[in-house]
Amino acid sequence: MVVRRRPHVVNGGGFVVTDCREKTIFKIDGCGVLGTRGELVLRDGDGTDLLLIHKKEVMVVRRRPHVVNGGGFVVTDCREKTIFKIDGCGVLGTRGELVLRDGDGTDLLLIHKKGGMVQALSIHNKWRGYSYDYQGSPKPVFTLRDPKQFCFSITGSIRISVQPGNCYFDVRGSFPDRDCSIVDSTGSVIAQVKEWSGSKDIYSVVTKANVDKAFVFGVIAVLDYIYGESTSC
């Protein structure tokens, strides 16, 4: 078979596979056609989708000990560059509050556990995550609900609603066992938490390349707090 690359300037790049009679067998499109980085589509000669390929990124989470610097955790990439820092009540001094910062220390997400009488009577705990607009004002990003332990098992369904719109995600699996996934409304996995060297203090998170990673690690920060780990106190 023969592979012919297509120029980006003409039709978005990618390439075509033909047989000895120059009949098109496969067409492969990348981000120049799809408009999404880290994504490829393999189609047959008639244009029917055969395979969707997502690039994945692996990041490593390292929990910080409470006795040294107040807990929380740090997220690094494959080159050990710090991407995010997450602080909980051991640093902030406020229960039910989390802050996610980038590697330079800029606040990206502020996460609160909702309180009050209405929340006390609810069968769910509710967490809300806020980002900051260009004026520094908080803007709602997501709401996470998890079943209270006295109502359901802590392994029950955890749902995240994203603002604006009606998009939602679910957490499936066991976070304490480092075996869980964040799944979108179509059932597609956008991030996975996995063991790393058999340690609960260091674990990996595998994400799709085009996923909002601040959102992913904001959700993981809440899971960490729910299960009484490094961000709780």
UniProtKB/TrEMBL annotation:
Pfam families: LOR (PF04525). It comes from the Eukaryota. Belongs to the LOR family. This is Protein LURP-one-related 6. It comes from Brassica cretica. The lineage of its organism: Eukaryota, Viridiplantae, Streptophyta, Embryophyta, Tracheophyta.
